[in-house]
Amino acid sequence: MLAKRIIPCLDVDRGRVVKGIRFVSLVDAGDPIEQAKRYDAEGADELTFLDITASSDKREIVAALVRRVADEVFIPFTVGGGLRSLEDFRAVLRSGADKVSLNTAAIEEPQLISKGAEVFGSQCMVVSIDARRRNPHDASEGWNVFTYGGRQPAGLDVIEWAIEAERLGAGEILLTSMDCDGTRNGYDLELTRAVSSAVRIPVIASGGAGKLNHFYEALTEGGASAVLAASLFHSGEYEIADVKNYLRTRGVVVR
Amino acid sequence: MALVGIIDYGVGNLRSVEKAFAAVGCDALVSADEETLRTVERLVLPGVGAFGACMRALTERGFDRLVTERVAQGTPLLGVCVGMQMLFEESDEFGTTRGLGLLPGRVTRFSGELVVPQVGWNQIRQRHSHPMFQGIADGAFFYFVHSYYCEPADSRVVLGETDYGVAYASVVAYENISGVQFHPEKSQAAGLRLLANFARAD
């Protein structure tokens, strides 16, 4: 049986893991390679690096990081954050990443998804969608897509954009609920369910994990193929193995 | 120990495959040079993305001939992912595309209500014992990313099976030809062991 995936996410700035608190204060939280190795040893199924380096030599900095990770960690990993061209994708994939994740760039230039899929294959192209409810208390009103780290409304409906991304050649959708992110009250299950039933590609649920039960809900009720979490794992509150043991006892297939 | 040559025909990320062999103490190099690929003792045929694009890129460089000739000379070959699929006669990805035809059978798409591509960790059911499986538990998980799977015409070549809607051939071997649908270089300890087994097998 195909196992459900647990994916820790690492925010990286200039080659170091950082912990952002509401995008304001960035605290150095260590060496990405050491953390990647730790998650690998704990049983993470994949890793996601979100690179927030703002620098003219960003491409070289990211490629160097990716090479170091690829040399030592033998599980798949995705790199996202400010990749805007085929050249950016190539630099990351050639250095050893398995997938690239696109957010704002894909919305501003949707053909980037199809061009990337054509050159590198759909399996490389993860489209990341930041979703916010139109009405926080009523999922039936739907969700809007946001770009620029959740700062700007894109004028798109989440479900329509997910379907379009699949049509253009996306291999997976990384779906983040802005309403739930950081709350630790659980994933937006209505959102996850709405997107996973609208597309046939895998959906990775993100934003809101706080308790073991939340992972279970996203993977069952939400229909997600994978769950992503950041702070919950970084804080050491839960290890990957805790999540997997819990899911296993509830009948979810994990590695 | 034998030197492994990873065939570079411009497709995919070969660095991970090279590093995975290095991590288990095996000598491997990525090469696009015909002379080098004719002198290494084992060959790995990688492949990602579309079957047709991979076959075209391989053929443009004349490496389809090289692979066929070296296999006929008895050189051990391991096809990985689309590299495994290319061992067969044809694929129905975007019409029908010819493969290398080293093994009888075809490549077909997952159908039904499945999420496609299959992305993630799935298990291998070992049908026969084989040096490739040495030290690897029956039912071990490996990392897969694919929308198409191989249907060998001769079930005797099927070494390992995986369930995803159907039970399909995820590991094949016949004499010096072998193939795996998953990515051993991304499959942690079990994957590294399989690569070491390939590099070290007699």
Structural class of chain B: alpha/beta
H/E element string of chain A?
Answer: EEEHEHEHEHHEEEHEHEHEHH
Instruction: Report the sheet-strand fraction of chain A.
Output: 25-35%
**The CATH class of chain B:** Alpha Beta
Query: What's the architecture of chain B, going by CATH?
Result: 3-Layer(aba) Sandwich
Helix content of chain A: 25-40%
Supply Rg of chain B: 15 Å
Strand order, largest beta sheet of chain B? 2-1-3-4-14-13-12-9
User: How far is the first residue's CA from the last residue's CA of chain A?
Assistant: 10 Å
CATH topology of chain B: Rossmann fold
Computed over alpha carbons, the radius of gyration of chain A is 17 Å
User: Considering DSSP H and I runs of 4 or more, what fraction of the residues of chain B is helical?
Assistant: 25-40%
Q: How many alpha or pi helices of chain B?
A: 6
Helix count of chain A?
Answer: 10
Strand proportion of chain B: 25-35%
Structural commentary:
The complex is a heterodimer of chains A (255) and B (202). Chain A has helices at residues 32-42, 58-72, 86-94, 104-108, 111-120, 158-168, 189-198, 212-219, 231-234, 240-249, and strands spanning 5-13, 16-21, 25-28, 47-51, 77-80, 99-102, 125-133, 143-147, 152-157, 172-177, 203-206, 226-229. Chain A has 255 residues and is α/β, with parallel strands linked by helices. Chain A has a single domain (5-249), classed as Aldolase class I (TIM Barrel), CATH 3.20.20. An eight-stranded parallel barrel of chain A has the order 1-4-5-6-7-10-11-12, surrounded by seven helices. In chain A, helix 1 (32-42) packs parallel to helix 2 (58-72) and helix 8 packs across helix 10 (240-249). Chain A starts with a strand and ends in a 6-residue tail after the last helix. Helix content of chain B is 26%, strand content 32%. Chain B has helices spanning 15-23, 34-39, 51-60, 63-72, 82-85, 188-200, and strands spanning 4-7, 28-31, 42-45, 77-80, 90-91, 97-98, 105-109, 118-123, 125-126, 141-146, 148-152, 158-164, 166-174, 177-180. In chain B, the strands form three sheets. In chain B, strands 2-1-3-4-14-13-12-9 form an eight-stranded mixed sheet, with helices on both faces. Chain B has a four-stranded mixed sheet with strand order 6-5-7-11, covered by helices on one side. In chain B, strands 8-10 form a two-stranded antiparallel ribbon. The termini of chain B are close together. At the A-B interface, helix 2 of A face helix 1, strand 8, strand 10 and helix 6 of B.
